[in-house]
Amino acid sequence: MKQDFLKYQAQTSPHPLAMEVSHANGSYIYDTNNKAYLDFVAGVSATPLGHNHPKVINAIKEQLDKYMHVMVYGEYAQNAPVKLAKLLAKNLPFPLEKTYLTNSGTEAIEGALKLAKRATGRSEIISANNAYHGNTMGSMSVMGYEERKQAFRPLLPDVRFINFNNEDDLKLITTKTAGVILETIQGGAGFIQPENGYLEKVRKRCDAVGALLILDEIQPGIGRTGKLFGFENYNCIPDILVIGKGLGGGMPIGAFTASSQHMDLLQNNPKLGHITTFGGHPVIAASALATLKEITESNLMAEALEKEQLFRKLLVHPLITDIRGKGLMLALITPSADITNSVILQCHNEGLILFWLLFEPKAVRITPPLTISNDEIIKGCSIIIDVLDKIKK
Ligand SMILES: Cc1ncc(COP(=O)(O)O)c(C=O)c1O
After folding, report:
1. Whole-model pTM above 0.85?
2. How far is residue 224's CA from residue 230's CA, in Å, rounded to a whole number?
């Protein structure tokens, strides 16, 4: 399988881990030799309820037995996507009430950028250095990492960059700005949280100049930071909220939510202002609805903060220079990229899945399923500490 994977399936890097996956359950993924790997990554923050959660599986199966794709997005009223959008609205503050469902995070970012332009009649977008918002052309245009986008220029014009957490840069947001797009917690950059009321200040500046604030919660959203959405921790409500990853409960999804007043603009002048064939797919929406219900009705969000404290207590070692992030969105920082690589690869051999972050080579990603147990956290952290001990010798 590995040879065919490398030969026939397009690759994203020269050295994929290429683990041959057999099955997955709860906090574990099993390879074809039936070796169990404890999952501290959750498909890169995309499986908040772990693998094959029975409520998610049942919801998918029930929907499969009724129907799959019947019509393009937005024409027919279908139970699962309607209930999903309604449940999101119920859990969001005013004026975030209307949701557009897409197939991926990057596609939701594209929709959000378009909506900001459509709503303001302006073209300038402001993003942050070291931001990651996805890999299609619009999303890549607002990616704050030149090295990875140079080869694909020209990209969107009229995009400017500010430094995250830098208040002086806020003056670059002006009456020319259609939208300011920020990750609530910068992911690829190394799980950088907003500091000193930064998001509140961005909100104020956007209000002053009439620009829309787009918060990308594709990674921090869906309970990972102890609240359903990260912005709830920072006293700042965006005009457009972008969601993805964990919302699908392991299925591909994206979504952007705004006020009805804004969202309704996509219906007219021009009509069909944003369209998709498969967005809001009933099987995916059924999976997302079951996931969102479980997360909002259980204690998982509050537990994420307790589990963070357990990680912070256990992950103490001379080669750990910092632990960044919030809740179950944690980045362990080592003194060098080489040490980080060794930790990730050696832990893999020991049956613990860890991963890299996009732009911070010293960071080890720890984003387990929210359902991970304390015993599993203790077990995984002891593997990390043992591996670090060996590296230190
Ligand atoms: C913050 C953020 N925005 C956007 C995306 C893009 O989402 P997708 O890979 O579903 O297109 C990601 C994916 O890693 C992300 O972390």
Report:
1. yes
2. 8
